[in-house]
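Now for our specimen.

. . .
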Amino acid sequence: MKTFSLGLRRWLPVALWVGIVIYTSTSVGSVETTTKIARPLFLWFLPWLSEADARTLNIVVRKTMHVVQFLVFAFLIWRAVRLPPAWKVSCRRLCFAIVGASVMLGGLSEGIQVFYVERGASLGDVGLDVLGAVLGAAIIWLAERRQRPSAG
C-alpha cells in the first residue's frame, strides 16, 4: 500500500496536469471561449486598448500559455522522478525524457483539436509546447548541476 501511495504522490499531479492540457485542447480552449474571458479582463486593466489590440493580446497570451503549460509539465515530471526515494536516472536522460513526453503530449493535444470545428491543429503550437519543455529541462539541468558537489 505504501508503494501505491508513493506512486500516487509522484504521478497524480502529472496525470492531473495532462488532463488539464487535454481538456484545454477541446472547444473549451477555443479562441471564442478564451476571448469571452480575456477581452473583459484586458479592457478592465487596459481600457484604452482597441478591439484589434485586444484580439492580438489574446493570441499572444494563448501562445504564451503553450510554453507555460509545458514548462509546468516539465517541472511536474522532474518532481515525480526526484521525490524521495529519488529514481536513479541521470539528469540528461531525465531531460530527454521530459522533452520526448512533451512532444507526444503536444502532438496528442493538437491531434485532439482536429476533431473540433472551433479549433485548428498546428505544428507551430507543438513547437511552442516543446519550447516550454526545453526551457523547463534547461532550468532543471542548471539547478541539478548547481547542486552537484564540485570535484576538487
Notes: The mean pLDDT is 92. The longest helix spans residues 51-82. Residues 95 and 104 are 14 Å apart (CA to CA).
